[in-house]
Design a protein that fits this description.
Elements (H helix, E strand, L loop, with lengths): L8 E4 L5 E3 L4 E9 L3 E7 L4 E11 L6 E2 L4 E5 L9 E8 L2 E3 L1 H5 L2
Antiparallel strand pairs: 1-8, 2-7, 3-4, 3-6, 4-5, 5-7, 5-8, 8-9
Length: 105
């Protein structure tokens, strides 16, 4: 049995719901990852990254600069066996952060 480490939160939403980036940054990775499905990783400089996974559509390109709040894709179930959701992670200096405490800011 394969176990995936979950360093983020899963936000249930209807398939096709717009996904907004939480802070301005540069698209550093667009990929399909086992267990995560269609995934975008944004680099926010100074060691900060955000991960958006289980996406249906992706509206950005690698190296694209995005503003805070920009729509980067839509919620899907591309890597999930549990239905449509957004999987969201935040990293600071390669250490997983608690997304809930950051989203409250």
């Amino acid at each position: 049995k394969t176990v995936l480490l979950n360093n983020g939160i899963d936000i249930a939403a209807e398939k096709g719901t717009e996904v907004n980036c939480v802070f301005s940054g540069v698209v550093s990775v667009i990929t399909y990852m086992s267990g995560f499905g269609n995934t975008i990783i944004l680099d926010h400089n100074n060691g900060y990254y955000t991960v958006y996974a289980h996406l249906d559509e992706i509206f950005v390109k690698k190296f694209q600069i995005v503003d805070a709040g920009a729509v980067i894709g839509t919620v899907g179930d591309s890597g999930s066996l549990e239905g449509a959701m957004l999987h969201f992670e935040i990293y600071a200096n390669n250490q997983a952060q608690n997304p809930i405490s950051w989203l409250k800011k």
